[in-house]
Amino acid sequence: MSEMQSFENSKLRKVEVCSFSLESSLAAEKGGADRIELCASPFEGGTTPSLGLTLKVLQQVSLQVNAMVRPRGGDFCYDETEFEVMKAEIEAFKNAGVHGIVLGILLPDGQVDVVRTKELVALAAPLPVTFHRAIDFVKDPLQALEDIIATGCDLILTSGCQDKAPDGVVVIEQLVKQAAGRIKIMAGSGVNAENAQALLATGVDALHLTGKVSRDSRMTFRKEGIALGGVPSVPEYDISYTDWERIQGVVKQVHA
Predict the structure, then answer these.
(1) What would the pLDDT profile of 123-155 be if each residue is shown by its tens digit?
(2) Taking the model in full, what pTM does it have?
(3) CATH number for domain 11-211, candidates 3.10.560.10, 3.20.20.380, 3.90.600.10, 3.90.780.10
(4) How many other C-beta atoms lie within 10 A of the C-beta of residue 253?
């Protein structure tokens, strides 16, 4: 590959920031990201963001905003009532003016729910659809790749079926090779400036990260012994947000 080709490819690769707030969305823009995946509930891995947050981000951030459509935490096997909610959320986000939809549905046997995913992709049209890390919970990721392509999705977000993407580079590389340009592949989970080059070497089209840090709550009075979510390990007085400099660090690696 010539130096010019390498430069052009680097400019085509994207950096997507998973954001849970307006503050973090603004930080993503400041850090030079290309796109935002807007979510709620970080401790559940991301669920559907509120319409109010979505509208404010669209008003104040110039980046492409893709909205997560995930009606709850937990698995990705949804009943009919949850499926109806997902369809309503897609309609609401289209009306709001988002630039893309993020979703994923699995069958009980660990395969992609092709029929219902295809229905949601059609409903989202003409917006592009990302199939999220539900692919990391399938029985066979290479078969899942073919199934996702068949649904009409534009992009897959994956950690290579591992908790963190740097540990899943073998599967990520296999997905990229088998996809052969038929669908874009984006690596996410545990991405930072230090491992960005190794992930880019797999041939992925994009990197996905939160750039998350935390600060102490401004509360001076603190109620002990209460966990709002029922999970004591989730801190009530730590405020998570995106550090724009962490985003910038990855952006520099992508466009190096």
Answers:
(1) 999 999 999 999 999 999 999 999 999 999 999
(2) 0.92
(3) 3.20.20.380
(4) 22
